[in-house]
Amino acid sequence: MTQKVALITGAARGIGLATTRLFLKSGWRVAMVDWDGAELTSASADQNDVLPIECDVSKPDDVEDILSKTLNAFGQVDALINNAGVADFGPIEETDFERWRRVMATNLDGVFLMSQAATPALKETKGNIVNIASISGLRASTLRVAYGTSKAAVIQLTKQQAAELGEYGIRANCVCPGPVRTKLAMAVHSQDIIDAYHDAIPLNRYGNEDEIAEAICFLASDKASYVTGQILAADGGFDSTGVGLPALRKP
Length: 251
Known about the structure:
Order of helices and strands: EHEHEHEHEHEHHHEH
Mean pLDDT: 94
Strand content: 5-15%
Number of helices: 9
Oligomer: single chain
């Protein structure tokens, strides 16, 4: 049986790298896409059955290159994981158009471009798309006018993909991570913010990258063969509880 192939964007670190490793553990081959060449080289160095591709998903020419290289190397795409994203937070009044477009270009345009380019290959395999949005796309919070709006748009785009591509046997689903204990998050979250998140999350803790990867790989697997158009919040119950964090609302 031919090994399945996952094409993962934002694969050099964090959730993307954890997802890469889980797919490899499950016997898949993986095309690892990232715009950070140094990190990508480091992340892929000790991995077998991977193809590192340094490209920017917000650029149409780069996207075509990604698909071409993946198909030349592996011959197929069974799952597209749209994970690449920019986390740029700031108040509405300080979010100029340049900042807005920078976030939208990667977080939304990149998902659209990658999905559109991969559709012919996914038709051949009756494959699937898993888009990575965020809990910020499900519930509003401070400082996230561009980020949250981009992720809410990804959620709607997922439903659109499911509606239009289902007739080809292509499934499309979306994972919305809640607070995840990444190196970046721990570097910028003060103790007040950490405590506030713990108080607001029913499971009373941050998630970890492997837990989000498990959700992604499930939706991409045959175990989810009748699941499409769904939005899965992997968030410790955060979306089911109150609004806002006092530590983030302080002037």
